[in-house]
Amino acid sequence: MRIPNGFIPVMLTPFTPEMAVDVPGLRLLTEFYLEQGAVGLFANCLSSEMYELSSAERLLVIDTVVKQVAGRVPVVATGTLGGSIEEMANFSKQVYALGVDAVIILNNQFVSAEESDTEFLARVHAWLDLTPGIPFGMYECPVPYKRLISLPVLEDLLLTGRLCYHKDTSLSLTDVQAKINAGKGHVFGVYDAYIEHAIASLQAGSMGLSCIQGNYFPDLIVELCRTPEQGDHIQKFMCKHMQLMHDVYPTSAKYVLAKMGFPIGLETRRLVGELTPEICSSLDKLIEERKNLLD
């Protein structure tokens, strides 16, 4: 996988009023991300409501995105969502066969929170043996629990020559810098999810950002990635409203996109709480402040 520099959205999944995957809506959303300047796409992730999709729906979402992109940018997608190592490997091979550039593994699907890095590496290597030749990335997904990648684990997996992507959720600039340094000389990139140190992370050598704020205002995240030295106002704006953007997400992101003119419904399968009138009012004010940000 060729590693691009820039914004890689963690894609939303549009649903119909009947709560089916909205395939035409997903095609439009894919185009929207690309028009905004995304350099790649992460399909079938937590923001996509991957845990609320069936296996067939996950494959449908990934296939729709890959076909719509048609090779214009890389697409990565999650391929390990529970079950035995053999079951995860089989699903990963189905995902890769759809044409993704890399299959993303979820760290928390290989071991429990109490198990060691030694056990984690043994199981990941077993998965690797069952998926020969498939480029892969890692995602420190916070659900059902967050398992961070230690430096020894990263260094071990980099030696496979197949690890090309890492979505970091450590919230630690020190950890991000260490992973960037470990990846030098490899076809590998760190994409940071934490907006609070986005500029410092980009300046330290991260390849880009892959954060939920990009599902509210993707153009701003693209601009931040392109010119981090001029992006302090964007980072401050995002940090100021971080809690609001996490409230009832991803419904809240769909609300903002719809209010700004993108045709997406508010249907969400994840149980994230109610989009109350108070939250809607706060999101309306967020949209106005975002407009003023560019004046």
Descriptive account of the structure:
The chain is of the alpha/beta class and 295 residues long. It has an 8-stranded parallel β-sheet. α3 links the parallel β3 and β4. α5 runs parallel beside α6 and α11 packs across α12. The longest helix is centred in the C-terminal third of the chain and has 17 residues.
Using brief descriptors, characterize the structure shown.
12 helices; 8-stranded parallel sheet; alpha/beta; 295 residues
Instruction: Name the strands of the widest sheet in spatial order.
Output: 1-8-7-6-5-4-3-2
Biggest sheet, in brief?
Answer: 8 strands, parallel
Individual helix count: 12
Mean pLDDT: 97
The shape, in one word, is globular
Q: What fraction, in percent, of the residue positions are helical?
A: 40-55%
Fold topology:
Elements: E1 6-7, H1 23-36, E2 41-43, H2 55-69, E3 75-78, H3 85-97, E4 102-106, H4 117-130, E5 136-139, H5 151-158, E6 163-168, H6 173-182, E7 189-192, H7 198-204, E8 208-209, H8 218-226, H9 232-240, H10 242-246, H11 251-259, H12 277-293
Parallel strand pairs: 1-8, 2-3, 3-4, 4-5, 5-6, 6-7, 7-8
Helix pairs in contact: 1-2, 3-4, 5-6, 11-12
Could you provide a short overview of the structure?
The protein is an alpha/beta fold. The protein has twelve helices and eight strands.
